[in-house]
Design brief:
The chain is of the alpha+beta class. It has 20 helices and 23 strands.
């Protein structure tokens, strides 16, 4: 039969209850979940699940097995879905011994843990409900006695149990003895857990110390940690190396030395700074200040150096400590001086720039204007704000004459983070005169990428615009000439194609620009002459004469062409201009005149021939009559 023991039933055998219901008695689902979570947490806290053999636990299970004479004695831990074999004595099945675990559903120990009461089954075969028990069917186990392993914190984490292949009579006294051994097992498990936690804490503390030292050593600043008396408890590698490199005694400025005493004892040139720094350390250690910092020079015989000393409270320690950091700011100081020099140089360069350059801050106030900008402006731009820009530079207009809204000004857009490159703008002064500029503007950002202002450059293109308008006027004049005007570079690539050339040759201006003139107009029989003309032109000659040219549709016609060189203002050859006219009608007229002249000559010749024949006939007749 099988039964469980409790304190109130030590003197009597309870009635048999089916095992499938034992763990459900007086226990709600939420209570079971809570107890399971507590059990698993206790097992984790004790670090009880470990593969190694503990010799004390092994001795305990060997002794328990010897006392009761069973085939097996086991210390089992109930996990969420398996029972873990922490220790055992006897011949455990090889598969189970290798796995050190089995499904919790197969276990009798789960009833013991769930009820937190001892459980004894003297003979599975004699108990109807247990004749199909897993351990009986698979391993021949007929006897089971288990008592809970109840921790000092309360939860039961497993069992100390006995198993045997023969039935065993197991009374109340045996249950008590088994319970005493279970308490010894719990004591050992708790001791092992405490020892492991202590060891883990020591390892963690060492690891933290190593990580702290590595962290300190990885920093570029010279760092020391002092306690409330000013004694140094830790320094980093940079601190040590600096002391050695500067001829100091590392023992006087390393662990064990008193930093405050060293500062108080300082004499000579920097004694005043040392005293001030010691005062700052004491203020932080006493809690009067959260932090303290001081910049000071520390020049060596071979170089100028500056340091920033900072003192802060050390967090993460129960004892009062302070972190002292000395950071070499020589690079920053020298960079500041270099930056100032660079600023002066930049302003000098910008002052000589031909473009007008202005800079404004993030609020739209002009902070810099070079000489060209001052010459262009109606008043000094520096100090003015964007809303006064029309009074400073004039009212901005698009090339088509429309006013530019203030929100679309190039410098306003730059203050929104936008960049403008080469935007053509006409600036109209109050007296109605104007000047044309190309405006480029970009945002200015600091090292953190924050917008701090904008810069704009204005290139005066008034002269260029006037030249373009003059050139456009000349091009329009050429378009009115009833002759094809074509310009090329010295290689014959078309750079200008007049309107009459479009009508005469059938090519649009867009089709010809950038193409070689020989591909467009030279007739199929004139290639040799075309090359000869180009050579004569390159040698400085002018050529004129009749030339058979080709239209876009492939047809040809005679043209009278005059080609000559184009020179720039310095007399350099820069291209060729050709003027061609269609002489088809003139040639046709000339051919007609030639035809008529030939006809007249032919008629005259025929008339003279008739006269000659008549005279000859007359003479013959007269002779015959005579």
């Amino acid at each position: 039969m099988w039964y469980s023991f409790s304190s109130r039933h030590m003197h009597e055998r309870p009635t048999v209850t089916p095992p499938a219901k034992r763990d459900l008695l007086d226990t709600s689902a939420s209570d079971r979940d809570t107890r399971e979570a507590e059990r698993l947490a206790a097992i984790e806290y004790l670090r009880a699940v470990r593969p190694g053999v503990d010799h004390v636990l092994q001795e305990l299970v060997d002794e328990v097995r010897g006392v009761f004479g069973t085939d097996l004695c086991m210390v089992n831990l109930n996990l969420s879905d398996v029972q873990y074999f922490r220790a055992w004595s006897g011949e455990l099945h090889p598969d189970l011994a290798e796995a050190r675990r089995d499904s919790l559903e197969h276990s009798m120990c789960r009833y013991v843990v769930n009820t937190e009461k001892p459980l004894v089954v003297e003979d599975f075969l004699a108990t109807e409900e247990l004749r199909e028990q897993h351990w009986l069917i698979n391993y021949g186990i007929r006897f089971y006695a288990g008592t809970p392993l109840v921790t000092s914190a309360g939860p039961a984490i497993g069992t100390l149990c006995l198993l045997n292949t023969r039935s065993v009579e197991f009374g109340e006294e045996q249950v008590k003895v088994l319970g005493a051994f279970a308490r010894a097992v719990v004591g050992r498990l708790e001791l092992l857990g405490a020892l492991e936690r202590e060891q883990a804490a020591r390892v963690e503390e060492k690891q933290r110390s190593r990580e702290l030292q590595r962290t300190l050593d990885s920093l570029s600043a010279h760092i020391a940690i002092v306690d409330e008396s000013g004694e140094i408890v830790a320094v980093n590698d940079v601190w040590r190396k600096f002391a050695e490199a500067n001829g100091g005694d590392p023992k006087k400025v390393a662990e064990g030395a008193n930093y405050l005493q060293v500062c108080d004892a300082a004499t000579g040139l920097h004694a005043e700074e040392a005293a001030a720094f010691a005062s700052g350390i004491r203020a932080v250690l006493s809690g009067r200040q959260e932090s303290f910092e001081m910049e000071y020079p520390c020049h060596s015989p071979t170089e100028r150096r500056w340091f920033m000393g900072r003192v802060t409270r050390f967090s993460g320690s129960e004892t009062l400590r302070a972190v002292i950091a000395h950071e070499n700011i020589t690079g920053r100081k020298l960079a500041g001086e270099a930056l100032q020099d660079q600023k002066v140089l930049l302003e000098t360069i910008l002052g000589q720039a031909a473009d007008a350059i202005v800079v404004c801050d993030e609020g739209g106030r002009f902070t810099f204007a070079n000489a060209a900008a001052r010459r262009m402006a109606l008043r000094d731009p520096e100090g003015a704000t964007l809303d006064l820009a029309p009074e400073v530079l004039g009212v901005a207009h698009y090339p088509d004459g429309r006013p530019v809204p203030p929100e679309q000004w190039s410098i306003t857009r730059a203050l929104r983070g936008e960049t403008t490159v080469g935007r053509e703008t006409r600036m109209v002064r109050p007296d109605g005169t104007h000047y044309d500029v190309l405006i480029s503007a970009a945002p200015l950002e600091n090292a953190e990428g924050e917008l701090v202002g904008a810069v704009a450059s204005l290139l005066d293109i008034t002269g260029r615009k006037q030249a373009e308008e003059h050139t456009l006027f000349q091009a329009r004049l050429l378009d009115q000439v009833q002759a094809a005007v074509i310009a090329t570079d010295m290689d014959g690539v078309v750079t200008h194609w007049s309107a009459h050339a479009e009508r005469l040759y059938g090519f649009s201006r867009e089709e010809t620009l950038g193409r070689n003139i020989s591909e467009l107009t030279v007739g199929p029989t004139e290639a040799g002459l075309a090359n000869e003309i180009m050579e004569r032109l390159r040698s400085g000659e002018t050529w004129e004469g009749e030339f058979t040219v080709r239209r876009k549709d492939g047809s040809t016609f005679p043209a009278y062409v005059i080609d000559s060189l184009i020179y720039d203002s310095r007399g350099r050859e820069i291209g060729i201009v050709g003027v061609s006219t269609d002489i088809t009608e003139r040639r046709q007229a000339e051919e007609e005149r030639v035809r008529l002249r030939d006809r007249e000559i032919e008629v005259r010749t025929q008339r003279e021939e008739r006269r000659r024949i008549a005279r000859d006939l007359h003479d013959v007749v007269l002779q015959d009559l005579s």
